[in-house]
Design brief:
Number of helices of chain A: 0
Shape of chain A: globular
Shape of chain B: globular
Oligomer: heterodimer
Largest sheet of chain A: 6 strands, mixed
Helix content of chain A: under 10%
Helix content of chain B: under 10%
Order of helices and strands of chain A: EEEEEEEEEEEE
Number of strands of chain A: 12
Structural class of chain A: mainly beta
Structural class of chain B: mainly beta
Strand content of chain B: over 45%
Chain lengths: ~120, ~110
């Protein structure tokens, strides 16, 4: 079974609108971490946001928030007020277990922001 | 702030050639990782290291070797390059024990094996 599933290969959003990128995960561990990374066309991997499995509050970092639904094993990324510079690939990732040596990445979602 | 530095940025190899992808970090991170990213795919873990002298296999280790003689450096060796190893390679590091274990990535090495 896939550890991380991103079911949206491509998404479009109007500038200044909000968009949700879906991510579901599969683990039997109690302790794990969930991450979102942005990969612009230049290729680098940029960390966006982190959610720990024991965190009760949803993580927020500026315009990024993570909608964490533990029972559903989902960790959706919400980008508010989309900007043209948000056009990129977005990857969901999971660090499993403790001390968490293994990381798993999804196949990514390509987001295009339309002016 | 150098962070994680990978060299070279691009390389073309012939089948059967060998090469070493270099990775160095200046953040005093104990954990380091090598990933490959095939076109249209996510990252797959090749090898990782939890400290100098300690390495372990990830999801796709075949055809690769690593060593970790210092905290800063984690080179990846391809001994007999094959077309299936055409990919973009990312090195990453993290400070184990800080809680979040955020991975910081290098800029990547784009490798073509022809």
């Amino acid at each position: 079974a896939q550890k991380i599933t991103q079911t949206q290969p491509g998404m479009f959003v109007q500038e200044k609108e909000a968009v949700t990128l879906d991510c579901t995960y599969d683990t039997s561990d109690q302790s794990y971490g969930l991450f979102w990374y942005k990969q612009p066309s230049s290729g680098e991997m940029i960390f966006l946001i982190y959610q720990g499995s024991y965190d009760e509050q949803n993580a927020t970092e500026g315009r990024y928030s993570l909608n964490f639904q533990k029972a559903r094993k989902s960790a959706n990324l919400v980008i508010s007020a989309s900007q043209l510079g948000d056009s990129a690939m977005y990857f969901c990732a999971m660090r499993e277990g403790f001390p968490g040596n293994q990381f798993y990445f999804g196949t990514g979602t390509s987001l295009t922001v339309i002016p | 702030n150098a962070g994680v530095t990978q060299t070279p940025k691009f390389r073309i190899l012939k089948i059967g050639q060998s090469m070493t992808l270099q990775c160095t970090q200046d953040m005093n991170h104990n954990y380091m990782y090598w990933y490959r990213q095939d076109p249209g795919m996510g990252l797959k873990l090749i090898y990782y290291s939890v400290g100098a002298g300690i390495t372990d296999k990830g999801e796709v280790p075949n055809g690769y070797n690593v060593s970790r003689s210092t905290t800063e450096d984690f080179p990846l060796r391809l001994e007999l390059a094959a077309p299936s190893q055409t990919s973009v390679y990312f090195c990453a590091s993290t400070k184990q024990g800080e809680g979040k274990n955020i991975q910081y990535f290098g800029a990547g090495t784009r490798l073509s094996v022809l």
